[in-house]
Amino acid sequence: NYCPVNRKFRYNTIKDQRKVNELDKRWPQLKYDENFGRNKQYLWENEFLKHGSCSIQRYKQPAYFDLAMNLKDKFDLLSTLRNHGITPGSTYDLDDIEKAIKTV
């Protein structure tokens, strides 16, 4: 979380429309209108600067997003949580959520 980022490692707007489509399908920017979100990419920028920058020496920005999408595809987090009785709209202890995730 919030690793220091060298100024040369800034977020680069993703221009490849195939990649933008893939990201938008798996990591939609629900706070914004679809076209605005895809063009401005505020959510993806924030997530990369907050989390992806921690591994910038090993994974550059394109690799960070590829890894995030691969993990999303590999693990069905919502089903895992549901199987452990954790459903949207309720409050749960962080320990219970962590235990459910650790099962996969």
Automatic annotation (TrEMBL):
UniProt-listed Pfam families: Ribonuclease_T2
Task: Using the record, list the residue span of the signal peptide; answer none if the entry has no such feature.
Answer: none
Name under which the protein is recorded: Self-incompatibility ribonuclease
Instruction: Tell me what organism the protein belongs to.
Output: Lycium barbarum (Barbary matrimony-vine)
An annotated GO cellular component of this protein is: extracellular region
Q: Which residues form a coiled coil?
A: none
Gene Ontology MF terms in the entry: ribonuclease T2 activity; RNA binding
What keyword terms does UniProt attach to this protein? Endonuclease, Hydrolase, Lyase, Nuclease
Family stated for the protein in its record: Belongs to the RNase T2 family.
Which GO biological process entries does UniProt record here? RNA catabolic process
Highest rank taxon of the organism: Eukaryota
Instruction: Tell me if Hydrolase is a UniProt keyword of this record.
Output: yes
Q: What is the lineage of its organism?
A: Eukaryota, Viridiplantae, Streptophyta, Embryophyta, Tracheophyta
